[in-house]
């Protein structure tokens, strides 16, 4: 099932919120009471005078209205016709979705397909897909993922023993790439389907740490819809499992740190500042123990990622000054993924916006766009924040960015 709003291009989150409220025949005061906001805040959201861009703000409104977050944020996003790469990326969604739906079904591969199975070559292609993911090359991902998923599904069906376990590991990686591709394009329900495929494939590998890594994404699914208790239960179970294993290998330390960061995010979105900070500090200790950036199971954990999350978490809490202060100490090596670097600058831009520093916010968003054009233009928080800035002050580069985002 896909979630669609009845909005049109250029709508703000506040306009969509107003329509959802009126559909229930609620007054602004009723929504304010049900969601725990002031009447003034609801009016500011609906009129576009206050950005509705943080999950901690959006999710209480969703719970009150009984809607999915994308009904407020407006996904899936359709890029402007002039954006050729964006159009190319979106055009492949149906093919990726078909490949996901075929998981676990007989492939009915012909003799030529079976003969063509080459696990080393599939390993190279899966690595290339992961590079596209970290490079935020959505158009390229859309072109290569359908065939890769099909070939891996065939390989999983015709191989045996340890080789089959290896193929399922590659399949889990490919499903992770599909999950991120779909999520960034705003196809949230399809991304959830991909996450389920990641879990099933990881379990077929027989590797307990690989299974735990897949549950990191599973926790994220519940976190995204505000089911904090369910997300917390998955995270707590994983951390308890890692403790019982007493595994001090770099892979296990990296995985523990990644779950501590996920726990921090879960608490931040629940507006639990102290708990979020506590888990971030624990992740910092894991990163210090590693002493390097790693990419075990493509989670990119290490000192750099912890520093990036040190900015993201106060942004989630609406603490712009804390985020900007921490951002000054973040050093991003050129070798670090463009996707993560661009997301960092998106967070910095939002932090500057919360501080009323709109020129600095625009500069950060433009830096993010240079690193990862498609991912930045389709980021719900960027679109909402830039739209709010434009409604209060139209000028130069800001309007040009708004046109590329499709919010003007």
TrEMBL record:
<dbReference type="GO" id="GO:0003677">
    <property type="term" value="F:DNA binding"/>
</dbReference>
<protein>
    <recommendedName>
        <fullName>HTH cro/C1-type domain-containing protein</fullName>
    </recommendedName>
</protein>
<dbReference type="Pfam" id="PF13560">
    <property type="entry name" value="HTH_31"/>
</dbReference>
<dbReference type="InterPro" id="IPR010982">
    <property type="entry name" value="Lambda_DNA-bd_dom_sf"/>
</dbReference>
<dbReference type="InterPro" id="IPR001387">
    <property type="entry name" value="Cro/C1-type_HTH"/>
</dbReference>
<feature type="domain" description="HTH cro/C1-type">
    <location>
        <begin position="17"/>
        <end position="72"/>
    </location>
</feature>
